[in-house]
Amino acid sequence: MNMSWAHQHLSRRRALAATTGLAAGAFLPHGPAHAAAATYTNPVIWQDFADIDVIRVGGTYYASASTMHYSPGAPVLRSYDLVNWEIAGHSVPVLDFGAKYDLNGARGYVRGIWASSLAYRPSNRTFYWLGQIDFARTYVYTAAAVEGPWSRHTTIGTPYYDAGLLVDSDDSLYVAYGNTTISVAQLSPDARTQVRTQQVFTTPSSVGTLEGARFYKINGQYYIFLTRPANGQYILKSSSGPFGPYTMRQVLLDLRGPIPGGGVPHQGGLVQTQSGAWYYLAFVDAYPGGRMPALAPVTWTADGWPVVNLVDGAWGTSYPSPVVPPPPRQVTPMTGVDTFDGTTLKPRWEWNHNPDNTKWSVGNGLTLRTATVTNDLYWARNTLTHRIQGPASTATVQLDHSAMRDGDRAGLALLRDSSAWIGVKREGGATRVVMVSGLTMDSNWNTTGTGTEVASATVSGGRIWLRASADIRPGAARPGTFSYSTDGTTFTRLGPAFSMGNDWRFFMGYRFALFNHATKALGGSVRVTRFELSTP
Length: 536
Description:
By secondary structure, this protein is mainly beta.
């Protein structure tokens, strides 16, 4: 169904505030008897990964997430225990869906990769990613391994909004999708075309909006897992095949989440461990940082309905760790140092819109050549972003600015629809380190403020260290602070604290961002020789 942007905006209209209601569920025992058991703490990932689809292939778990206008899109996370995760790759290598994703005459903010689906097909040992773009059509990408290379497999004319892809036990392919009106489509055996589509469920008005479909076949029953944004989760069940009829049951509503000040866990996926245990990996709205994955065990009723296991009437802040075999290796941390060695960027990085690949390189640091002449960071190409680690973290950058040209701006930003940055201004032969605040967008993601310099200092030489610290605990506007160093050891605070907004409508949370753009003419460059993300 081809829904308007306004309709989509309204469908996610509910506030993301924390709630105090309870949901029915099984209660986990807790206390001294369980103190010695291995446990994990929620959120299992305190970084912005939303609209999660999660699967297991053999002894490895994979999850996919939304990335909107960031490129490459649709990151694939990997884990061996459902608790410790790494970023393995991206299913959508480039957002080649129109010029707006290149910042070429238009912008794609809050468009692009929304809730999509990740699946594995054992018959051909292939991973599939499926998602709709701009309410126009659906794209399918495939790969033999999640690290890639991923390639476009097909384009389907029906836009499968918030899709869930099911590989059935007979190898047939089905997609559940829709908003309030839920449909199921069958794909051709080669997954290139739609064979049929049929409406299977209409959400009762007493429930409101349901979307975010995930599609499963469990013990011969078909299930469509749906979210009520942003405070509920429901499930449909059919004993008569993928096209229904379906009956509905509430899984959770207004359930207290595991992040103080955050929202209700919702819109994720179900997955079964090798030993047969079930888990629900959802996300928690936790702005200004974004939407954070949280994990809870699931049990099933005798008549085949899932129940989230609760702790004191809430989604637990901790649970016993999943019982899984020892991992074959440790996963790559999402924090730490990157010196931009090798020939490609590590998968922790995503560009703000597609980059101009002629204007950057890695190896002996990251070189950013100016790619845009603009006074608006939101229009500047080749801004490279990194998720913030919660509940608070610091990014430190070593920057060689000796090749900047007059009018250039380069630095480290806290980037969202309201932004600030610290960086180097080259102007009239002078070099200054500055803190700039007041970069803003309106609700249509048009620039309303290009920023005002609020503090500065003169610097000499060609090298500087820039630092941004961010507190992303949800529930209130939180501070971001900036500082700089000329020796990498002693840092000087620059400018007032920046208040990071916690409105949900931009969807993506704040990110650290590396940028270099011209205001007069192209030709300058900077080199980032080291990036470090650290926690207190």
